[in-house]
C-alpha cells in the first residue's frame, strides 16, 4: 500500500506540475510562452503524461482514477508487479492520485508565482488549474468528457494487447491526439484527479486576482471520465 501511495502521488504530481505548467506558460502574463498556440498545450500535456508514467511505473502508472476504475472492472485484475486491483488498493490509488494532483498544482503555482501576480484575468488563472467548457451545457459536456475518456482507456487497454514496445510514448501520443481532436469543447480533463485536485489548490492558494472556482462545473470532469472509463472497460470485455 505504501508503494502505491509514494509512486502514484509522485507520478500524478509530475503530471499536473508539467501539465498545468504548460497552460500557465501560455495563458499567464509575462511568461516566455505567453500567447503560444494551443498545439503547445496539447504537446505539453502529452509529454507531462510521458514523464509521469515513468515516475509511477512501478505501480502501473495509473495517475488517473479513470484508469484505476477500468482496471477494477475490466479484463485485467492485476497491473504492474502483481499489485491486485481490489477495493482497498483502488481506494489507495484514488487517494494518491488526488493528493498528487493537488501537490503538482501547488508546485506549478510556486513556479509561476510572479506571473500569477501580473495576470488580472481570473478566467485565465482558473484555466491554468482546471478545465471548463467553451459552451456551457453540463449534459453535453459530460458526453464530451465520457467520449474522450473512453478513447483514452480503450486504446490503453489495446496497447496492452499489442507488442508495440512503445510504452509511455504510446500513451503520450494518445493524449496529444485526444487533446487535438476532442479537447475543444471542454479542455479534455479525461481524468477526475487532474481536474479536481488542482481546482481545490486554486481554491486554497493565495492567488492574486483569482475569481470563482466554478464549483458548479466541477462534477462534470469527474462524472464524464467515470462513465467513459466504465464503458471502455466493458467494451474491452466484448472486444
UniProtKB/TrEMBL annotation:
Family named by the database record: Belongs to the MIP/aquaporin (TC 1.A.8) family.
Check the record and name the Pfam families matching this protein: MIP
Cellular-component GO terms for this entry: plasma membrane
Task: Name the Gene3D superfamilies for this protein.
Answer: Glycerol uptake facilitator protein (1.20.1080.10)
Q: Does the keyword Endoplasmic reticulum apply?
A: no
Would the keyword Transmembrane be found if you checked this record's keyword annotation?
A: yes
Question: Transmembrane ranges?
Answer: 6-27, 39-57, 92-112, 139-159, 166-190, 215-236
Q: What is its main location?
A: membrane
Q: Which UniProt keywords apply?
A: Membrane, Transmembrane, Transmembrane helix, Transport
**Name of the protein in its database record:** Aquaporin family protein
Topology relative to the membrane: Multi-pass membrane protein
UniProt xrefs under InterPro entries: Aquaporin-like, MIP, MIP/Aquaporin, MIP_CS
Q: Which SUPFAM superfamilies match?
A: Aquaporin-like
Source species: Kushneria marisflavi
